[in-house]
Design goal:
Protein name: Tat pathway signal sequence domain protein
Number of helices: 5
Order of helices and strands: HHEEEEEEHEEHH
Strand order of the largest sheet: 1-2-6-4
Low-confidence stretches: 189-195
Distance between the termini: 145 Å
CATH class of the largest domain: Mainly Beta
Strand content: 25-35%
Structural class: alpha+beta
Shape: rod-shaped
Number of domains: 2
Mean pLDDT: 80
Number of strands: 8
Largest sheet: 4 strands, antiparallel
Organism: Streptomyces coryli
Length: 195
Amino acid sequence: MQVPREPEVVGDDAQRLTDRWTTLPIRVRRAVVAGLSLLLVGLGMYEMCRPDGPKPQAAPTAHPLRPVATRLDVEDVVGPDLGRRSLKVRLKAVATTKTVITDVKPSEAGIRVSVRPKLPLRLPSGKRTGFTLTLEVRRCASGAVAARPFRLAVTVRSAWAIQVRSPIPSGRIASELDTALRVLCRPSSTSASRQ
């Protein structure tokens, strides 16, 4: 019995791609699959890492806390007044927002500070406000007041923050303040305070 011949397919008698693939040795096929896999993974990583033009930016949001800046300047030193053992320091303050000066403390325990106008002192936004400190030397603590540079700790409060500022006098003002404190703490004037 004769087996019927398969009908001829109209077209090209060339081997198909699948036929060629199956005729390749298994190692070659695995190497090709591994190479194509690595190529696809590499292209995918490149696509993920590559910048795509301008990056979308989040809409700017208003910061809930506005920055608060308060500037304190020492304008003048008046004194010393040997009878009262005091001197006056004039300051100017300006703040970026509505601010209140709530406290002024000296760096030395032997000095009492009083403020005019009285505390709390309100600073309007953007306007320079002047105030005067009267520094009364009660005791010189063995010359410590005159030996160290004098500092003030000014507590400033706004709706957003509480800050402690320290105005640092410079040049002529620092020299005048230092001289006035030395005059008030001379041995002849400290003997009266020790009684």
